[in-house]
Amino acid sequence: MRIGIDLGGTKIEGLALADDGRELARHRVPAPRGSYDDTIRAVVDLVDRLERSAFAAHPTAASADRTRNRIGIGIPGAISPATGLVKNANSTWLNGRTLDRDLARALERPVRVANDANCFALSEATDGAAAGAAVVFGVIIGTGTGGGLVVNGRVVAGANAIAGEWGHNPLPAPEDDERPGPSCYCGRSGCIETFLSGPALARDYAAHGGDEVPAIEVASRADAGEPAALACLDRYERRFARAIASVINVVDPDVIVLGGGLSNLRRLYDRVPALWAAHVFSDRVDTRLLPARHGASSGVRGAAWLWAPGTLLALQ
Ligand SMILES: [Zn+2]
């Protein structure tokens, strides 16, 4: 049995999969915000609960021998290859901690830990929207703009464990009113994330005469034909096309898969590819832009896949 854990900022989701990929159990608990020790305890409790309910419901598919269950964990950051400590987590109480070792000790078995966007990309590349594609770039556009890269079914983590982190590049070819751009929590200004996250879209709408409403409301107002919301989504799509074109120029993915709340904006899948051609160094662009097949479950599914043979290329 494979167990995947998606360690989010507000919730921790857990999934138990049989070796053939069948779902055996799934649970979700609130994340203990701000406390590292409580986070470790919550993961241990969740794994315990998943193992009990999987075995109770599917005694033939789940093993009673807990040491045979493999545990993969997606985190909103990365384990630094240089120090072994968590970095880049917006759940800041995880940063600077030996999370993988502490979890392995608490769970009394080895664990694999990977960035949550890498888990998302792995899930969609394995049996999701990008199944069978050689080079897959996964993007989560929600509270942030995470990214992950999977090549030939394997996660590419990178020398600094930041492969795919396009969101903290500067927005390419900024227009006059996009310079220097909003300041970002990473310490720079004008990062892609400060234009393309959900809160960024909402802020842009308000800054151009709209109400202060969440991104999802801006989207439904655009569907209803409100001019200010339509103009906001036009700006968003032009920015998205410029930003993702720079990814296409570097890794040339077969498929770009979108997850997160803003991936539900159906118009992105036609409009962004129509706009990105102007910024890609190619006479034609055959890259496909697709919504995630597993939706919000992709993070936890990908975490469970971390133990599948051959899924890791450079994961420490
Ligand atoms: Zn940034």
What is the CA-CA span between the terminal residues? 22 Å
Globally, the shape reads: globular
Helicity range of the residues?
25-40%
Order of SSEs: EEEHEEEHEHEEEHHHHEHEH
Strand residue content: 15-25%
How many strand elements? 12
Average pLDDT number: 94
Ligand catalogue: zinc ion
Rounded Rg: 20 Å
Number of helices: 9
Descriptive key words:
316 residues; alpha/beta; five-stranded mixed sheet; 12 strands; binds zinc ion
Description:
The protein is an alpha/beta fold and 316 residues long. The protein has nine helices and twelve strands. It has helices at 36-57, 99-107, 116-127, 193-196, 198-207, 215-223, 227-251, 268-276, 298-305, and strands spanning 2-7, 11-17, 23-30, 70-75, 78-79, 86-87, 111-115, 135-141, 145-151, 154-155, 255-259, 288-291. Strands 3-2-1-4-7 form a five-stranded mixed beta sheet. α1 (36-57) packs across α2 and α3 crosses α9 (298-305). The mean pLDDT is 94. Bound molecules: zinc ion (ZN). The site of zinc ion has 6 residues, from loops.
Topology:
Elements: E1 2-7, E2 11-17, E3 23-30, H1 36-57, E4 70-75, E5 78-79, E6 86-87, H2 99-107, E7 111-115, H3 116-127, E8 135-141, E9 145-151, E10 154-155, H4 193-196, H5 198-207, H6 215-223, H7 227-251, E11 255-259, H8 268-276, E12 288-291, H9 298-305
Parallel strand pairs: 1-4, 4-7, 8-11, 11-12
Antiparallel strand pairs: 1-2, 2-3, 5-6, 8-9, 9-10
Helix pairs in contact: 1-2, 3-9, 6-7, 7-8
The structure holds zinc ion.
